[in-house]
Amino acid sequence: MRMMPIAAFAAAIAGCASSDSDPGRAGPPVSSSHGVAPGAGKESHVFEVKSSADLAQLRIEYMRLWSKGSPADLVVQVAPDASLMPTGWALEPEHPGEGEALIDVFIKGGGAVLPLPERVFARSLRMQDVILTGGRTGPSEIRVSNAFAMRRSMLVDARLTDPNGQGGFVEVFADGGPHTGADVTIEDCWFVRNYQADRPARMLSFTQRGEDAGYFTRVKVARSAFLGNAFGADLAVEYARAVTIEDSLFFRSWTGPGTEIACSHCEGVIATGSTFVLERADQAASVDRTQPVLLKSSRVFARGWKAGAALPPALDPSTAVEDRAAFAGEAAASEAIAAATAQPLHLPAADAFAKLARATGG
């Protein structure tokens, strides 16, 4: 599927012929388009994905787009009924390290199930209404210089299958250089029953690499559910000026080592209006070269917690912890896990999180 001028998109849908970006070269039937947005000084492209073959073609088209070296917007529209094999795909330059990231990518899922990407290199990446799932032997690597966002999306029943695999499962790198910060926004998302292999790993890892790496100006998580995951850390953040967790639920029944939040070299971490349901209090958070996590209007439930017990050092001294037996939402959380993992996979209803929050006292 080749991208074509937006002006020709309607004609393509109507069955008219068009040409791709190579002069004099006819393009095959397509369901994708590109063109220059009026007055924007930036090309705007659309690519529709209906099959695994389209994902393979998207990889090729992205290399071509990158090689042009021009700022661009790319919308990847995944058809709700897309039939996609559990194979890897990527959005990357033909040669690693080639050129500057000038493309802003927006993946619109419409509730479609999408295998995790192998690699994405972009100026920014946004995902909306996407279900990500499947097993991987190594990390899904995402490099952005400006921003990363997930909205109304779900990572469910994903597996790190390499028994020696460590590091991150989904690794998001701040890749804009030492003076460039990237924003992270995760809103109205679900992370349900995802598993590491034998070694401790991080489910979502926001990090940087190398002397020329960037940093994160802010990592914000809002109205999101982390349910029944088995990772060394559900949310790991390194080199961020601010980490904020708002109105979210962390529900862990795994007794293995690890924490819901792990922060290193972060200037401040605040959880507001959120609930942590844990096997042990030390599963709430871990910090390294970061101040203890401040919980405001939030609740922590730990199994067997005794009043007067010493708080884990990663939690601010003002944190109040309750025995998990006092948590009234065990059944509701278990039902939410069962609903989210039921086949065929569907995004939870728009009001599902609000109902779960009410049932769990949030």
Q: What's the overall average pLDDT, rounded?
A: 89
Radius of gyration: 21 Å
Order of helices and strands: HEEHEEEEEEEEEEEEEEEEEEEEEEHH
User: What's the count of strands?
Assistant: 24
Protein model, in words:
- This protein has four helices and 24 strands.
- It is globular and about 65 Å long.
- It has helices at 6-13, 52-67, 330-341, 352-359; strands at residues 33-36, 43-51, 72-83, 90-91, 103-115, 119-136, 140-151, 154-160, 167-174, 181-187, 190-192, 201-207, 215-222, 225-227, 233-240, 243-246, 249-251, 259-266, 269-272, 275-278, 285-288, 294-296, 299-302, 321-323.
- With 362 residues, it is mainly beta.
Brief rundown of the structure:
The protein is mostly beta strands. Helix content is 12%, strand content 44%. It has two domains: 1-115, no CATH class; 136-362.
Task: Name a few traits of the molecule.
2 domains; about 10% helix; about 350 residues; 24-stranded mixed beta sheet; mainly beta
Task: Please write out the topology.
Blueprint: H1 6-13, E1 33-36, E2 43-51, H2 52-67, E3 72-83, E4 90-91, E5 103-115, E6 119-136, E7 140-151, E8 154-160, E9 167-174, E10 181-187, E11 190-192, E12 201-207, E13 215-222, E14 225-227, E15 233-240, E16 243-246, E17 249-251, E18 259-266, E19 269-272, E20 275-278, E21 285-288, E22 294-296, E23 299-302, E24 321-323, H3 330-341, H4 352-359
Parallel strand pairs: 2-3, 3-5, 4-6, 5-6, 6-7, 6-8, 7-9, 7-10, 8-11, 9-12, 10-13, 11-14, 12-15, 13-16, 14-17, 15-18, 16-19, 17-20, 18-21, 19-22, 20-23, 23-24
Antiparallel strand pairs: 1-2
